[in-house]
Inverse folding.
């Protein structure tokens, strides 16, 4: 019996997002505190869409760690697999509020202290999707834990997923990143990446054809490439190539977390056995809502309206 929809494993942290829009970190005076980390956002978003989610992550034994657990519980995310480090404080990231790609400074501490005993086989067996990120794979012991548990998830028949949110600020060794990604991608996860991610991963602009060939060549069936205002392209080996233009948004308030909202929508639709095109449409609607809000998705999401797309 599958009692869990998504296991999200990886970074939990605090985002301190600048209060002034399109101001550099250098010039930003005030920051507001938000629960952050890409796998964390996916777990929270999915829970708020009515899915059962488990977050496997680590934070500090401190006030920020207490805040993280409190916020997760208030969003009905299962926190039984959150570890509190005895020595490392909670990881924090300072982010400029931006209508484009935000600048950030990461202070990484406890987020990478993820161990295999946090995710027993029985929990994996009762889930549908196993999701992680490139950020989470950038550092041990989290890296090895995720690779080992991902193999077990594949054995147990779960669909895997990854957000390739690569940044050289987080993972300076690009070639090592490609090797570790290759190992994870051998499990044929659903892949989400943005044009910015690709530029950072390959250190130059690559064509869509190159990007799709590269990841399909590593054993991936479904690749979702987000292109900001230029829409979304999905390359699926079984169903072909799909493009959807971006939804019109009158006022973008904050881009932080928009990719996570998009991907939550896509995974939600996949769990509901929607087609690739329906999944793209639901994903875009959720991302559009996020772009018009600072911090998390708002409380009054009209799920029926989103699903009708």
């Amino acid at each position: 019996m599958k009692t869990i929809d998504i296991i999200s494993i990886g970074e939990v942290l605090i985002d301190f997002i600048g209060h002034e829009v399109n101001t550099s970190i250098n010039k930003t005076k005030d920051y507001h505190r938000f629960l952050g980390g890409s796998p964390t956002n996916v777990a929270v978003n999915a829970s708020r869409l009515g899915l059962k989610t488990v977050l496997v992550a680590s934070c500090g034994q401190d006030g920020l760690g207490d805040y993280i657990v409190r916020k997760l519980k208030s969003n009905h995310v299962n926190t039984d697999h959150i570890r509190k480090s005895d020595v490392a404080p909670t990881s924090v990231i300072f982010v400029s509020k931006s209508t484009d790609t935000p600048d950030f400074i990461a202070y990484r501490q406890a987020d990478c202290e993820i161990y295999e005993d946090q995710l027993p086989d029985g929990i994996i067996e009762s889930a549908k999707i196993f999701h992680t990120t490139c950020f989470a794979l950038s550092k041990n012991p989290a890296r090895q834990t995720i690779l080992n548990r991902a193999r077990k998830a594949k054995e147990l028949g779960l669909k895997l997923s990854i957000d390739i949110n690569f940044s050289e600020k987080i993972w300076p060794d690009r070639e090592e990143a490609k090797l570790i990604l290759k190992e994870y991608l051998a499990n044929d996860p659903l892949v989400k990446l943005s044009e910015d991610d690709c530029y950072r991963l390959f250190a130059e602009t690559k064509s869509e054809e190159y990007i799709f060939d590269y990841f399909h060549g590593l054993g991936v069936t479904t690749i979702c490439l987000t292109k900001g205002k230029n829409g979304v392209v999905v390359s699926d080996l079984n169903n072909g190539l799909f493009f959807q233009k971006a939804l019109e948004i009158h006022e973008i308030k904050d881009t932080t977390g928009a990719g996570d909202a998009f991907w939550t929508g896509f995974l939600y639709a996949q769990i509901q056995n929607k087609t690739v095109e329906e999944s793209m449409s639901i994903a875009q609607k959720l991302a559009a809502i996020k772009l018009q809000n600072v911090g998390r998705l708002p409380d009054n999401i009209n799920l029926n309206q989103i699903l009708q797309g």
Observations:
- The radius of gyration is 18 Å.
